[in-house]
Structures are given as structure tokens and as C-alpha cells.
Design goal:
Layout: E1 3-7, E2 10-12, E3 18-25, E4 33-39, E5 46-51, E6 57-59, E7 67-72, E8 77-82, E9 91-102, E10 105-108, E11 118-122
Parallel strand pairs: 2-11
Antiparallel strand pairs: 1-3, 3-8, 4-5, 4-9, 5-6, 7-8, 9-10, 9-11
């Protein structure tokens, strides 16, 4: 069964950093694009960034220059390095296999389930 397990969230002050991990199993990471999504209280889940099989990354405008998505095939893990965090980054963060609809628009793959996510809270 395909699994993606998120970890690394926590409580951080504005301006701080966190690195999230997405450990995958039961599929070959190199063959799939992976995206990070987040859901803030009372809001819809939204795409944050994604990386295709060639290693090209795409970012939501509000996180450009602050977030970096990286994939490590040897470790079967995708990372999300988040710097200069802001209170509006507070959300539960999820990773998922994705398909690209266009160059910078992606969506979760059909029939894949969401994991439990990891909570990121940015507050003074």
C-alpha cells in the first residue's frame, strides 16, 4: 500500500525555520512528482509547492524565496525546508503524489489517500 508519512512540524516563532520530511514507501520515488499541501483552520487545502521527476520545483507565490522542496531518492524522502516563517504559514502540512495539469499547476493523484499531516504553528 502506497504510504507517505509527514513529520517535522512544530511550534516556531515568526522568522524561524523548520524542515518537514515526507517518507515514502511501496513505490519508487523517482517515478513520481510529489507535492506539499497545507490546510489552515477554516480554509481549503491548498498546494504549496511540487517537484517533478526531473527535479524541477514549482512554488505558490506566497512561499517563493522562503520554501524549498527537495527530493532524496536514496532516502525515499522529500523535504520541505521552510525559512522566514510567518504566522500565515500556520497549517497542517501534507505531502502527496501529484500530477501536473500545466507547468505550474498540480493536483493530487486520483485514488491516493491523504496522510495525517504534520502541524506547523508560527506564533510569537
Amino acid at each position: 500500500q502506497v504510504q507517505l508519512v509527514e513529520s517535522g512540524g512544530g511550534l516556531v516563532q515568526p522568522g524561524g525555520s523548520l524542515r518537514l520530511s515526507c517518507a515514502v514507501s511501496e513505490f519508487t520515488l523517482a517515478n513520481y512528482a510529489i507535492g506539499w499541501f497545507r490546510q489552515a483552520p477554516g480554509k481549503e487545502r491548498e498546494g504549496v509547492c511540487a517537484i517533478n521527476v526531473y527535479g524541477t520545483a514549482y512554488y505558490k507565490e506566497s512561499v517563493k524565496g522562503r520554501f524549498t522542496i527537495l527530493r532524496d531518492g536514496a532516502q525515499s524522502t522529500v523535504y520541505l525546508q521552510m525559512n522566514n516563517l510567518k504566522p500565515e504559514d500556520t497549517a497542517i502540512y501534507y505531502c502527496a503524489r501529484v500530477v501536473f495539469i500545466s507547468q505550474d499547476l498540480w493536483r493530487p493523484r486520483d485514488n491516493d489517500s491523504w496522510g495525517q499531516g504534520t502541524q506547523v504553528t508560527v506564533t510569537a
